[in-house]
Amino acid sequence: MTRWHVASRVLAAVAGGYAVSTVAGVGLVQALPLPRADAVMAGVLSTYLVYGAAVVWCFGARTARHAWLGLLITGAFFAALGVLGGSVRS
Amino acid sequence: MKGGLRQSMAWLHTWAGLPVGWVLYFVFLTGTLGYFDSEIDQWMRPEASLPPPALSQVEGLALALARLEQVAARAPRWTVFPPSGHDVPHVTISWSTVDASGRPLRRSETLDATTGAPFRTRATGGGQTLYQLHYTLHYLPSATARWLVGICSMLMLVALVSGVITHKKILADFFTFRPRQGQRSWLDIHNLVGVTALPFHLVITYSGLVFFVFTYMAPVVDATYGRDGRDRFFDEAFRNPDIPPPVGAPAPLAPLVSLYDEAVRHWGEEPVRVASFYNPGDRNARVVFTRTHVDPVSNGGRMVFDGATGELLDRFDRRTGPMVVNHALLGLHEGLFAGPVLRWLYFLTGLLGTAMIGTGLVLWTAKRKAKLAPAGGTPPAAVRVIEHLNVGTVVGLPIGIAAYFWANRLLPVGMADRAAWEVHALFLAWLAMLALPWLRPPDRAWHDSLRLAACAYAALPVLNALTTDQHLGVTIPAGAWALAGFDLVSLATGLGFGVAAVVLRRQEVAVAAAERLPDGMPAVSGATPLPEDAAG
What we know:
The structure holds two protein chains of two kinds. Chain A is 89% helix and 0% strand. Chain A has three helices and no strands. In chain A, helix 1 runs antiparallel to helix 2, helix 1 packs parallel to helix 3 and helix 2 packs antiparallel against helix 3. The longest helix of chain A has 29 residues. The relative contact order of chain A is 0.20. Chain B is an alpha+beta fold. Among the domains of chain B are: 205 residues, no CATH class; 148 residues, no CATH class. Chain B has a seven-stranded antiparallel beta sheet with strand order 3-2-1-4-5-6-7, covered by helices on one side. In chain B, strand 2 and strand 3 form a beta hairpin. In chain B, helix 17 packs antiparallel against helix 18. The longest helix of chain B has 35 residues. The two termini of chain B are 12 Å apart. The chains are: A mainly alpha, B alpha+beta. Chains A and B meet through helix 1 and helix 2 of A and helix 1, helix 6, helix 9, helix 11 and helix 12 of B.
């Protein structure tokens, strides 16, 4: 447990968490079968849930590497959701 | 991190909360006072006639239009708040105009129902400026304040969630109180006030973040609407009424009574919170009614009328889908729908939230000082700085707010920038209280601050009696409970600070006595270390 590991987790939580939450928001907008404005509203309202969960995850994970990995997987999941949802729509 | 989940959550709870604790304390306290903004407004404007005469909304609208035709005939838009219960006791109007150098400017007036003219009250920020502090932070540019409050709120959310995970035995902790045990007592109080109103804290924090969600989470909107599409999104999402430009042909406004009756038919009595008049006096005039807050989601209702013909062009009573969630969160945060009982509950839970933050800050230093106590060491500089900030904020900010009220009564009525100086008084007094711990030992600083706070609040009703004719001897018999309530709450606040000062003094006497005990007797306070998992 070094300072670098703590710094890595903080970076993952603050920047990684924000990135994942916006990706999740955009993914939901694409995937939700709602009018465009409603989907955006649902998307932005969900972002803080994802952000909060991501921050807790980053400090609860066993190692800093796990923290980053979890964010990557979650981000990839929502990105895939967005791409699939977008292709169904169009 | 080191050890299990609870340890890492305790660490996160501490380090998410501590750096922003003082800002959060400020945000929670000034925001909580906002639940009585209207009462504070009334107290700070003793010249306005009280209690306000019973005026129907239709009469209020007529009063407003008469005044606006007189002073703002050429304005492109008028806004009228007819009287609607707690929040708007007097008719309030505003309009856009330009100042001497051609810059756009909004003017507003509160109307005296008996004369139809604006009240000539002292210049004051009132309860409005006081509660707006919790997101404007007053001296900062609005964008900076918005982001700062947003970051602090996000950390608050993280601190709440990690705090709950840390105290997984939440019910057992809730019923635990170990008095007079130094930092353990602080921990128990912190848990008690935190858990009591936990749902409130969560909803207030989350919904607070929602107010500026389109700023904080702009990329989500931009990804769909493009970088310059924000306004298009707002138009679609909030169904902003389509206002045509004026044609330039004059046309009288359709009789307002028929428009109002239409609103009553759909929304019930006292239906209008805001009436907006676009292009008044033009053939393309539009009248937009926004619905009163009868429950957390009714604030989305709106009616659009053709101002010249009186024809109803568009109406929706409630939002649908995710918009309901948005409006419900904002509605719950503002609590405008709340009646007296619920309003008091809002106020008290808001104070619990403030106390949760305050005790959390004090707990941090109490724990670190307790660790050092057996060795008799002096706390490191960082701990001392934080303790100073704690004294200066936890008690100093309430003193600053008292100074705001004192300034309202003592600054000369004709003074230039009077309203601005009321707010300066708040921040100057707070600054002085922040400086105090650097001049006095911390224990003395706590005492001095608590005593000063007790006096500052307990004396407010006296000051009010000396400077106005609306003191408790008048307001209680008259049943003017907004004004009497302000004075009574001030008294109670003063009493509360006084009790705190006495309790603190007694504890110190007990500790000093314990320290003089012969060897082998356990000291009463401070020295027992916390179990590692209890708090960061």
